[in-house]
Amino acid sequence: MLYLLNAIYAFFTSAGTLATAFPGGFHRDQAPSGTAMPYLVSKVVSSVTEYSYGDASRSVVQISFSAYGTGHDSTGTLAELLIRQLDETLLTLSSGTNDTVLRKGEPAPTLHSQDAQGNDVWEWTVVYEYGVVNP
User: Fold this and answer.
1) Where are the alpha helices (DSSP H) in the chain?
2) What digits encode the pLDDT tens for the residues 55-78?
3) Residue 1 has pLDDT above 90, yes or no
4) 108-114 and 97-103 as β-strands: parallel, antiparallel, unpaired?
5) DSSP for residue 9
6) Is the N-terminal amide bond of 23 cis, ω within 30° of 0?
7) Contact, 126 vs 101, CB < 8 A?
8) How far is Cα 86 from Cα 40, in angstroms, rounded to an integer?
């Protein structure tokens, strides 16, 4: 699974559109306190590995992506940009092959507390399922 997580990070950093849209960066599990908004966080939701004859295996990994920013609509627009970049994008892994990607619904908003300037902080989350054939 680490190969997939590293490929996702590499995709974010190499896709200038995403790096520009999220100047606070891309973080795994949680952004450091004080991270500039907007930013993106990924979390592993689930991971299942199926083994077959001859030790071949296939993993199915669900990962949530959460866009954090100020303003409901502006953060939602960033989430839409994210899904346009991720939909149907197979990733290049350093080991194994990413053979499927499936978005598991539309981005959903959640209101959080206000930032230091009194702006509403919004989180828009979408979940993707990645299939990986392991060597």
Assistant:
1) 2-14, 16-21, 72-86
2) 778 999 999 999 999 999 999 999
3) no
4) unpaired
5) H
6) no
7) no
8) 13
- Please state the three-class secondary structure of 113-125 as a single string: EECCCCCEEEEEE
Do residues 31 and 42 touch, judged by C-beta distance below 8 A? no
Residue at 126: amino acid letter = V
Q: Are 83 and 101 in contact (CB under 8 A)?
A: no
**Dihedral pair phi/psi, residue 34, rounded to 5°:** 85, 5
Q: Quick check: helix, strand or coil at residue 79?
A: helix
pLDDT digits (tens, 9 = 90+) for 71-109: 999 999 999 999 999 998 999 999 999 999 999 999 999
Torsion of CA 34, 76, 63, 89, to 10 degrees: -120
What lies within 8 Å, CB to CB, of 75 at 6+ separation is 38, 67, 68, 69, 109, 122, 123, 124
- What is the pTM assigned to this prediction? 0.92
